[in-house]
């Protein structure tokens, strides 16, 4: 009684298809391009982090500064698009023969994205003494105040991960017919 027939020629054909996936580049490019569009909209238009929550909210003083200096805003939600430089540099590209990536071409914008996610420590110019109410006090002058960051922004969301799986399933169903 045969329950499952094992046909070695089918295995060899399948192995050959897997080993010579000339369309791997096509599917990787398709996935990267689709996720790039989703992520760019989610981050720079909707202001949503990877976990689905809001990236954050701007303080009233920062909103006033933005408006005073001619920068658009959609309410007080953080969208990481002050000048548009970072948003315009966010792109999809081929890393090598087997990898595509979504990220930044410019290292400065990449560092801004890391700071947005992870924050940055305060940087000091110098420590000095200041007299306050007749007492000498040690103080530090800051170039920039540190902050904690917003958390993961540039990872795929759960829904984006599902979309990747659907694209891959569609590709596999067509490829292995």
Structural class assignment: alpha+beta
Beta fraction: 15-25%
Strand order of the largest sheet: 1-2
Q: Low-confidence stretches at least 5 residues in length (pLDDT < 50)?
A: 1-11
Q: Give average pLDDT, whole number.
A: 80
Helix content: 40-55%
Largest beta-sheet characterization:
2 strands, antiparallel
Number of domains: 1
Q: Rg to the nearest angstrom?
A: 25 Å
Q: Which shape, going by the Cα principal axes?
A: elongated
End-to-end gap: 28 Å
Q: Give, in order, the helices and strands.
A: HHHHEEHEEH
User: How many DSSP helices?
Assistant: 6
Number of strands: 4
Write up this protein.
- This protein is an alpha+beta fold and 177 residues long.
- The chain has one domain.
- The protein is built from 6 helices and 4 strands.
- The strands form 2 sheets. It has a two-stranded antiparallel sheet. A two-stranded antiparallel ribbon has the order 3-4.
- It starts with 7 loop residues before the first helix and ends with a helix.
């Amino acid at each position: 009684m045969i329950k499952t027939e094992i046909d070695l020629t089918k295995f060899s054909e399948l192995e050959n298809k897997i080993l010579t996936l000339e369309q791997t580049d096509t599917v990787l490019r398709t996935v990267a391009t689709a996720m790039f569009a989703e992520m760019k909209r989610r981050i720079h238009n909707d202001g949503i982090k990877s976990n689905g929550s809001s990236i954050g909210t701007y303080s009233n003083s920062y909103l006033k500064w933005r408006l005073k200096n001619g920068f658009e805003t959609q309410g007080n939600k953080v969208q990481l698009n002050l000048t548009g430089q970072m948003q315009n540099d966010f792109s999809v590209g081929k890393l090598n023969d087997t990898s595509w990536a979504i990220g930044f071409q410019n290292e400065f914008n990449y560092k801004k994205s890391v700071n947005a996610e992870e924050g940055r420590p305060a940087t000091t110019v110098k420590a000095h003494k200041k007299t306050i109410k007749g007492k000498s006090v040690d103080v530090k002058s800051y170039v920039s105040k540190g902050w904690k960051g917003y958390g993961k922004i540039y990872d795929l969301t759960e829904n984006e991960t599902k979309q990747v799986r659907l694209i891959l399933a569609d590709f596999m169903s067509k490829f292995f017919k």
